[in-house]
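for ur thesis appendix - Histone-lysine N-methyltransferase MLL2. copy paste whatever u need, i formatted it the way the template wanted (i think)
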Amino acid sequence: MGQNLHQQLQQASQQLHEAQETARQAQGSDAQLLQQAQQQLLQVEQGLQNAQEESGSEATENPQFQQAYEQLHDTRQQLQEAQQNNSDVL
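the 3d part is after this line
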């Protein structure tokens, strides 16, 4: 596996953790934190897309890539639910 791909996946994974943490902190209350988590997820998605563009199937077949992509999707769903709950409260 290329060193560059490995670094990109590590970075995406780290950013994903930060986004998940931000989403947890925002749960049910803080619209600004939800927005921040949304931005972090966009960065993760961009990082994964870059890795895919540069490394092709080597990236998409990588278990770390697949896991990061699944977590990205799950976290995005959690965020959408949290935003929905926030707008219900308002």
